[in-house]
């Protein structure tokens, strides 16, 4: 197992490097970079830098030759200053190598437009995304595992049939559409006003008692978590059912029943551990999946300031330090979580040997 882990850790390096190279190259061809963003703000805000040009006609003529769209009329000194501040006065290869060297030291730089380090910015938004990802994953598991086991036991019966209909409907409904439905029905739409429209806590949250803070937090997070959970719950239920069905049909289950063991003893004493292997071992990957996927729309609908909105706003503003810093960090986290998932398979079932399979 040690050799397998070492190989996987070494494989992380070229994989992560490939991700960064591909995305860095793509950004070189995307129009509207950070300098164009600043130029657009300047042009839209009036003649803010009129005092810098001094030369009037000559400066305008020089700026008209600029490679940046919308730079007409701005002094070339201002454009050059922007290039130095953003690091675009250096060749792309040198910028990429410098960026990767800094990332290896976990120096992710500072946001172009927020005057805050990327690490502090991510830490500021992290509680919202962790709340959605963690609670959605836990609730999905708490519902899906017993429901999936029950469906496996009642396979082909009316219970299995009508619950499958509900699961298929839940899987087919987009999470953002379900979120809007929850808002309309339960959060001040045309019907009930049981839950708040936005935010993770109330404005006077700090004045609450400990119990009051817990209740307020649950009150705010309930609808976003339900909207995020619906898709994961459907997938995990069917995964649990199919896993248990495969185990129930195996010879050791038939032998256990022939020995006179009760159905409950057979199910939870023999089938449960083998049937839960793929479900439990996939918990880290499931959490990361819910943590990253679909968070943008849910956060936008419920006005939650999390990593989904951060990534979207950084992409729109071409805030490259935020884009590449979060891409590097979360890409690394995703690769490590994949390795952890494999290790969990071995911990749960020692019969699994990845090294033997590779050999």
From TrEMBL:
Xref: SUPFAM superfamilies: MetI-like
Gene3D superfamilies for the chain: MetI-like
Alphabetized PROSITE patterns for the sequence: ABC_TM1
Does the record carry Transport as a key word?
Answer: yes
Record keywords, A-Z: Cell inner membrane, Cell membrane, Membrane, Transmembrane, Transmembrane helix, Transport
Tell me the membrane topology, using the record's own terms: Multi-pass membrane protein
Q: What does the entry list under GO cellular component?
A: plasma membrane
Domain spans labelled ABC transmembrane type-1: 126-345
Provide the family line: Belongs to the binding-protein-dependent transport system permease family.
The transmembrane residues are 9-30, 128-149, 161-187, 217-240, 275-302, 322-348
The coiled-coil regions, if any, are: none
PANTHER family to which the protein is assigned, alphabetical: INNER MEMBRANE ABC TRANSPORTER, INNER MEMBRANE ABC TRANSPORTER PERMEASE PROTEIN YEJB
| InterPro entries given in the database record | MetI-like, MetI-like_sf
Q: What is this protein called?
A: Microcin C transport system permease protein
State the compartments where it is located: Cell inner membrane; Cell membrane
A GO BP entry: transmembrane transport
One Pfam annotation reads BPD_transp_1
Presence of keyword Hydrolase:
no
């Amino acid at each position: 197992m040690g050799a397998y882990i070492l190989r996987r850790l070494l494989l992380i390096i070229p994989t992560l490097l490939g991700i960064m190279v591909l995305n860095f190259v793509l950004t070189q061809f995307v129009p509207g970079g950070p300098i164009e963003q600043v130029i657009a703000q300047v042009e839209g805000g009036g003649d803010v830098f009129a005092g810098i040009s001094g030369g009037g006609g000559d400066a305008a003529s020089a700026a008209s030759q600029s490679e940046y769209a919308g730079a007409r009329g701005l002094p070339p000194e201002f454009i050059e200053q922007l290039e130095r501040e953003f690091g675009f006065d250096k060749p792309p290869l040198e910028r990429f190598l410098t960026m990767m060297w800094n990332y290896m030291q976990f120096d992710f730089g500072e946001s172009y437009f927020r005057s805050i380090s990327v690490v502090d910015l991510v830490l500021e938004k992290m509680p919202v995304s962790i709340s959605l990802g963690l609670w959605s994953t836990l609730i999905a598991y708490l519902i899906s595992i017993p429901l999936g086991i029950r469906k496996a036991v009642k396979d082909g019966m009316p219970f299995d049939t009508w619950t499958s209909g509900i699961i298929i409907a839940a899987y087919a409904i987009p999470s953002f559409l379900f979120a809007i439905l929850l808002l309309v029905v339960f959060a001040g739409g045309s019907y009930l006003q049981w839950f708040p429209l936005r935010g993770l806590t109330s404005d006077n949250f700090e004045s609450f008692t400990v119990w009051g803070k817990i209740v307020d937090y649950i009150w705010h997070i309930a609808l976003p978590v339900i909207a995020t959970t619906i898709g994961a719950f459907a997938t995990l239920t069917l995964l649990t059912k199919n896993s248990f069905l495969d185990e129930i049909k195996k010879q050791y289950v038939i032998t256990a029943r022939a020995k006179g063991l009760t159905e409950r003893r057979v199910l939870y004493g023999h089938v449960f551990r083998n049937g839960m292997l793929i479900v439990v071992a996939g918990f880290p990957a499931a959490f990361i999946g819910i943590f990253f996927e679909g968070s943008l729309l849910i956060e936008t609908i419920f006005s939650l300031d999390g990593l989904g909105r951060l990534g979207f706003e950084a992409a729109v503003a071409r805030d490259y330090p935020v884009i590449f810093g979060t891409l590097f960090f979360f890409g690394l986290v995703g690769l490590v979580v994949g390795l952890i998932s494999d290790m969990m398979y071995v911990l749960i079932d020692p019969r699994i040997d990845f090294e033997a399979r590779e050999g």
